[in-house]
Amino acid sequence: MAALITAVALCLGVLLAGSNLSDAQTTIGATVVLDPQDVTVIVGERSEIFAKVRGPLAQDVRLNFSSEHENYLQVNPTSVEIKAPSSSGGYVDSSYEITLLGVSPGQFDLTAAVVPTGLIDDAAAFIRVTVANSQTIIVVSNVIGWIYFAAWTVSFWPQMIINYRRQSVVGLSFDFLTLNLVGHSVYAAFNCALFWSGYIEQEYLDRNPRGLNPVLSNDVAFSIHATLATLLTVAQCFIYERGEQKVSRIAWAIIGVFVIVIITAGILVGTETFHWLDFLYVLSYIKLSVTLIKYVPQAVLNFRRKSTVGWSIENVLLDFTGGMLSMLQMLLNGYNYDDWASIFGDPTKFGLGLFSVLFDILFIVQHYVLYRNAKDAKNLQEESSTATTTTASNGGSKDSLP
């Protein structure tokens, strides 16, 4: 475990150190930029964008918008004439208003090309357009997103609270806890590097010229909080009663495989076979793998003990709430943007959410149905001790004859 965390920390340090690297770029001639480069249009409603042209221009050119998405969006005008200034040394600084009318829901890039080519840099002449059915659904989706973010964030604390109250971690699977720490650690490394390292972000944008950084500030905050909260829970295992519990050989073997994969990926980066972005993708695959297997040890431990005592049901309920709301948000967005392919065409995110929810349901059944009468072994011992003391002080059983 220490080796894994150290490896991730070292790699993260190298990645963040690379944030100071940048490639100087100079632009010769005029440039055209569509502003804003991300716009949401409601079906049947209009929205305005601007084509901004700045720089030296020797002759008149025309900016033509692509018509391949006309079933989703109407653009007016579809073509803009940009005239070369007769004064000011041939320097143009103009802005042209473009109206967008939503026709049908969808998500796509609207591009524009300059004719004749070569006179204006049109690399930034594109916008990411989202045509939605309803503004209300957008608001509801955003609210749902913040609710499940809060539910998932808070879900780490009930387990620590119950451990503190019981002064015991008996009933909490050490395998689950260890795998969870690995998963959140590599996820935090992935998010922090891609969010804070300009070098890594540029690698991503080089591969996805019209893409956006997929890591948001709340992703970074959640992953860092999750890692720290899990570390605190691990620390409790060294402080409180833990009985005979320990990390199994199977869990250590799985972690060993992850360490080998991380070291191998690091060597490939060192030999320039991999880029740092590829290394981060390896970390993300480890996170996905952990999500698929981490709940199994806890479910098995509950089954063997025939009890969920020591395993926080509040944690499960909050995780279940977050998972259900996350899938609901995906379904709402799928309808609003007619983007079902992101759910069923690439089912990883939806499938992982559903997988976690199914395990939460299993834990709920174990707690409230199968093992609902199970008591804490410590409480049973205390009750037995109290009963013995009471009997001795009364000179025998309360039902015994004088």
Automatic annotation (TrEMBL):
Segments for region (Disordered): 382-402
Residue stretches of biased makeup (Low complexity): 384-393
Location relative to the cell: Lysosome membrane
Keywords associated with the record: Lysosome, Membrane, Repeat, Signal, Symport, Transmembrane, Transmembrane helix, Transport
Top-level taxon: Eukaryota
SMART domains, A to Z: CTNS (SM00679)
GO MF assignments: L-cystine transmembrane transporter activity; symporter activity
Protein's membrane topology: Multi-pass membrane protein
Signal peptide: 1-24
Principal localisation: membrane
Catalytic activity: L-cystine(out) + H(+)(out) = L-cystine(in) + H(+)(in)
Ranges annotated as spanning the membrane: 143-164, 176-200, 220-239, 251-270, 276-296, 316-332, 352-371
Keyword Transmembrane: yes
GO cellular component: lysosomal membrane
Entry-linked PANTHER family: CYSTINOSIN
Family assignment from sequence similarity: Belongs to the cystinosin family.
Protein name: Cystinosin homolog
